[in-house]
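Summary for the funding panel

The consortium committed to producing paired sequence-structure records for every protein in the target list. Below we show the first two records in order, beginning with the earlier of the two.
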Amino acid sequence: MLRRIDTEMLSSMVKEHQCKQAKKRDVQENKRREACTAASELTQALVDHLNVGVAQAYLNQKKLDAEAKQLHTNATNFSKQTQQWVNLVDSFSNALKELGDVENWAKTIEADIRTITTVLEMVYKESQEGSSE
């Protein structure tokens, strides 16, 4: 009989131990699920936070690209306009040179005409003097 009581008591203790172990497993499983859920929420929050930064960086990059394109267009237009000014100044410089050449030519012609006039006057005076003699 003592053995039977010991067996029943032992059996009862085993059942009690198994119940406690099952409760501990349930508590641990609940805590594991909560930890997994918390970790998942934290990961999602971190990803969302990083995505905001990435999205802002993307928008900034798009703005920079648009501004760089506009700057390139402006620089190209400025270069074309500068080349037009250079061409205009070159044309003006050439026109001034031509005027200088024309002025030099006119002075040469004027000097030649004065020489001819002087010679003609001398010839006329000599012919007048020769006819009065």
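The next record, for a separate protein in the list, is shown here:
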Amino acid sequence: MELKDRFLHYVSFDTQSDENSTTYPSTEKQLVLLKALKEEMISLGLTEVTMDSFGYVMGTIPATPGMEEKPVIGFIAHVDTSPDMSGANVKPQIIENYDGRDIPLNKDLTMYVKDFPELSFYKGHTLITTDGTTLLGADDKAGVAEIMTMAEYFMNNPQIAHGKIRIGFTPDEEIGRGVDHFDVKAFGAQFAYTMDGGFEGELEYENFNAASAKLSIQGRNIHPGAAKGKMINALQVACDLHEMLPVGMRPELTEHYEGFFHLIHLSGSVEQAEMAYIIRDHDKALFEEKKGIIASAVSYMNKKMGQECITLTLKDQYYNMKEQVIPYPELITRAQEAMKMAGVTPIIKPIRGGTDGSRLSYMGLPCPNLFTGGMNFHGKYEYCSLTTMNKALQTMIHLASLWSN
């Protein structure tokens, strides 16, 4: 199956994950695509194909004869799409030989180059966009399609030398649970790459250290006419606490290696309110400092109110994979070489986020992240370049061969 057809087939599956679910995977519909991938692997002739009770699908592209002792490498992608926008009834639009101009998604919505200047890079490419009513699902079905097309290529061309290659597909990456039950030992690779990046040439082995902060604020509701000295307005406490955090450390004011506090939820009433933040920083010391800042703000507000009206729950989510990857420089140098062989200029940059690979690296599977060609993830402006997707495919093919040298 051609890469384009495979990708269009996969995005027809609604695989949206649900952060409020208590099951694993968080939605049954993810299992529909995961089961289909398992069957497709079997039909292509892959070996050691499994799907465990958590939905993880793994398979093997056997080593060519004489290459069995080479390092086992893996390629991993996630099947779920973001809870931020619907992934049902996706209607992809294909633009051949993109002319570099604004792209009408539907009669009411246009993707303007002035808003998305990176579109100029894709002039002449074949683009796949949404119709403006759903996300596309390139995050990460572009990666899934590229991995499966690579698998088909190697199975159809057994004369091309490579070691054993393991491929794996995970659920629930978008809600931070993608590798909660991933069996690294069963996967059996010494190194792996997640195919979950965006812009052409991205090679990422640094990501944020990440934590969540949830705050529960207990107020005291008194009639405003008699409130002096008695009322504790939980919403006002929330606002005051937020203003105590450094204004310059917000996502919209930071870039590159700069960390942030991101308020992602605020709700409630005078009587009771809830807040939620994500805390991010590439530097471990600055990450710990940020957690200390929010803890100190909570302590100060509680003292000011004269009681423990704010309860803070801090939880680390994942850590910077750099510490686990840099002892193996060949992970990066071979990826760079493979990109150049595919006609791609490598762009090494930190991820202002995280991937399954960040956690896998700390589980004993060093796992940098490679580009897929998808852009504007999680929303109606999502698109991908089929031209770049094919370069990602070629990069994987070259990379697998380089690991057999």
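Regarding this second record: The chain has a mean pLDDT of 96. The first helix runs from residue 3 to 10.
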